[in-house]
Fold:
Amino acid sequence: RKDTWRRDARIADEYQPNGDFYEKAKGTDAVQFSRGHQVRLLDPCWGADTEEAARNAAETFHYTNAAPQVQGYNDIDWGNLEDYLLDRAQVTRRKLTIFTGPIYRANDPFYGHGRVGGPWRIPLSFWKIAVLQKADARWAAAAFIVGQTQYVQALYEAKVFSGLKPYTADEMRTRHIQTTVAAIEAETGLDFSAVRAIDVQGTLESTRQTQWIRDLGDVRI
Structure:
């Protein structure tokens, strides 16, 4: 694969940190971040021919598709969920659509004071909505929030934010949870009304709409 990261020409450079942000030698920060694919490399690797598939894969290497994630979090916490969802689609040979991104909060910690263009605020958690074809005319949506706070303790002080009850702020920042599409809408300001009605958690009683994912067997979709 060609994993040469580059800026997206459609967006001003000031809004997309370049490679200096991720280079260990370019700063003295206590935590080192990797380029965390939001649209993962494997997901768009398809098309009419191998050339189209390769071109689609290369498009994932824009900095606008990268988010600062600690490598262990990217490989395990975030990566295992991605693998699980892709496996479900492959095993059932059904269509799968993924929406994903960071959750931005006003009290996110700063990183990169000594780096060009820095510092930047670091998102402490990321969301994902998976829409899986269950049958020819039936679909199901599952919503997740996965925190990376346990990997970046050196960057933040405990802060309180509301939402996603009944779990505490610390639990929500450090645990993996399956929640509702509506909760992600509230956290991000995005509109997912088109899939809200097929949310597998949304039909449960309110006290069960958010649950910890202790292992991937806890995932409902």
Remarks:
- Confidence is low (pLDDT under 50) at residues 156-169.
